C-alpha cells in the first residue's frame, strides 16, 4: 500500500501562526501518522506538483489538502488524478480541499458551503458506527476550536454519511462522506483548518488512517468499454 | 387525495400541560392545517384503532403520532398498515413515532436514539434544498424549545436526507428522512414533543404539507409476483 | 413549465435512414409529444447552440440528445447549463447523450459503456414501480430493435434506479437513473438510437413526459454560501 | 473470524436430485469453500435450529439458505438473529432465503419476486467493479442452468447494487445487493437453486468468500441510547 500526501504548502511559508503549528508543513504532519503503508509527499510547487505519471501510477491512496491556490493546480494534473481515481486509486480530500479542482471535477457540483473563523467548538458525531471509517472511534469527539463549515454543502448526496458535525455557533455539517467514481473510492473529511493543530488530534488521525485502509484499490482492472461483439452474444442470437 | 391523521391520543387526556396545548388532541391540530386533501382522523382507542380495512383502503397518506402506548397497537393492524404501504399508501411518521411498531416493522432496525427533555433550542437545517419536502422553507428554522433527539438514530441510511437538526446542548439528528418500501413512500420528521406547541409552527406545518404531497400514491398497481411463464419468454427460448 | 429540447441535429441532415424516421429532426419529434408544458427547441448549429442565457433562464427542464458532435459544444455553454442545473433546472439526458460534455461534467466520471448495433431486442423492466417516472408504465415494455448498451456503465451509483434493460444478445443496462446536483434533478434514459423510431413509442414517450414533471425546479433559491456571521450565531456564543 | 453456515437441510433429505448434487447438504458444500475463517454449520432441525445464543454470540458472519420451511423457523430465533445483526454480525442471504423470516424482518418489505424453473441460462454482470465483493471477478460470469428470478424484487433500494442478472428467457434481476442494519452488514446473493450445482461454481464461491470478508463486524460496540444527560451538555447550556 502506497500513500501520497499532497499539500499546497503555502500557508506554512507565509504565516507564522501556521508554521508554528506545522513547521514541516501539513503534509509532513499527516505523513507522520499514516500507518500500514509506504508514505510519500508531494506539493504544489514541485514539478508537475509532485504528481508525475510515475508517482500517481504508484499511488494507491492520495490524500489532498489545498486552500488558497486551487487555481494554480494545472488542469492536466487534474485530468491525470481523475483518471487514476476512475481506475481505482483512493482519494481522501481534507477540509478546504472541498474547493479543489479535483474534488469539484469528481462531484460535478459547486462544492460551496458556509464558513466562519471564530474559534467555534466542533463536535463530530458518528452516524454510521459500523462503517470501517468509524472503527475504534467514540460516539462523538470534540475539537475545541475549529473553523466552522455549515450547510448547505453543495455536493451530491453522499453514498455513505459517516459523520455529522455540530458547531457551537448553531450550524451542522456533513463532515465525513463517501463517494465512488469509476473503480475509485473517495472520502471527504471536514476538519483541518491551518491555524489549528487539528492533525495532531488522535481521533482525527484515526479517521484518516481508517479511510486510507477503506480506500485501497481493487485489483480488478478498469472495465472494457466500446464496441462489444463477443462470440457468445452472436451465437446466442442465431 | 385522502389523508388520515392517526394519534395515540392519551397524553392529551392525562396531562393538563398537553391538553392545554392540544385541547382537541394532536390529531385535530394536525388535521386543521393539512391542505389540498380530504382529512380524517383515527385514534388508538377506537375500534380497530380507527384503521379498518375500509379506512385504510381509502387513505392515500397516513400520518402517525404515538408515544406511550406503542405496545397497545395490535399486530393485525400493523400488518394491515404495512401491506397498504407496500401497495403504495404514503406514510408520515412524526417524532416519538420512531418507536412505533409500524415504523420499526418497515425499517427492520431498533429505531432507538438519545433523548433529553431540557427545553433545548432546535435549529433544523435543510441539506437538500431542491427536494419537494423542502419547498418554500428557509435555510434553517428554529423551534425555541423542544425535546432533544440525538444520534445515533438506529435506522437504515435514509434514501434522502432532507433535514438535520442542531441542538443547543451539543447534539445533531437526522430529522427529515425519506424511505421507500414496496410502492409506498415514507417520511420521518422529528419535531413534535407533546409538551411543546410544535404543530402550531408554520415551518413545521409546511414540511408536513409538503410531505403529504410528496408521499401521494402511484396509480401503478402492486407488481405481479410468483411463477412467471409468459408466452413471450417461452417463444424466445425456442 | 417551460421545456427546451436540445438536439445536435446532424444525423438527420447527413443520413437518409435517419431523416426518413425523423424528417423534422429528433428534437421536433420529442417536442411534439411533451405535454403540460410550453416547448421550444434548440440545436447545435444555432448561435450559442440555441442556449443563450435568456433561453436557459427561462427553461425549467432541458432535454438533451447528442451523439457525433459532442466536442463541438462550447465549454462556455456547458458551464452555463451546469450552473442552471445547480440552480434548479431539470435535465433529461437521452441515449448517446451519456457521452455529452454536460453529462460527464455533472457525473464526474467517464460515462463510457459497451455498445453494439445489431438490432437487439430490448426489454425495459421497471425496478421502482412506485416512482413518479414509472407512473402508468407496465412491468416491462419492449423495443423490437435498438442499439445495445451494456454494463459496465461508468456513472456514479444512481440515487434512484428506475429501469433496467435486458438485451437479446446477453447484456443488461441501468437504463433509467436519477441524480441530483445542487438544486437540479437529472434523469438519464437509455433508448433512442437515431436509426430506430424509438421516440414514436408510446411507452418511451410516457417515460419522458413523466420525467419532465418529476424534474421541475423547486422555487427555493440556490443556497447562500461563504462567510457566515449571523447575529443569532454571535449572540448564542456569548 | 467465525462463520456459521445455516441451512434448512430438507430438500437434500427428500429429493434424490438434490442429494445427488449435495450429498452432505448445501451447508457442508458452502462450508467447504469458505476461506480465512473458522467455519461451523447449523440446520433447522437441530435444537434452537443450531443457533443458540452461544453460537450466535460467537458468529462474525452468518450465511443463510432456506426455502420450503421458512415458517418453521421460530420467531424467537429470528429475534435473536436480528439483534445480533444490529449489534454488528454480518449476514449473507442466499437465493430462496429472500423469503426467509429474517430477511423479510430486516428489509421491512414483502421480498417477493418472479420465478421460473426452466433451465434458463443466467449471466451475472458486475455493475460495481471496484466493490470488495466483486474483487477478482470477470465483467460477467455465466451459470448454464438456473432457476430464473425476475423483477420486480420487492426489497428496499439496495445501498449498493453489485450484480445484475440477465436471464435467457427475457428477465433481469438485482442479484447482488448490500444493506446495513444497525452495525451489521447484509449481502443478498441470488444464485443457488437446490437442483443445480451452483455452489460448485468457482465464481459463485469467490463472491461468497468476498462477501464474508466484507461483512465482518466492526469492533465498535452498539451505540448508547436513551436518556442522555452528559455533563458536557449541561455545562454548555449554562
Automatic annotation (TrEMBL), chains A, B, C, D:
Pfam families: ThuA. InterPro entries: Class_I_gatase-like (IPR029062), ThuA-like (IPR029010), Trehalose_catabolism_ThuA_prok (IPR009381). It comes from the Bacteria. Residues 2-215 form the ThuA-like domain. SUPFAM superfamilies: Class I glutamine amidotransferase-like. This is Trehalose utilization protein ThuA. It comes from Macrococcus equipercicus. The lineage of its organism: Bacteria, Bacillati, Bacillota, Bacilli, Bacillales.
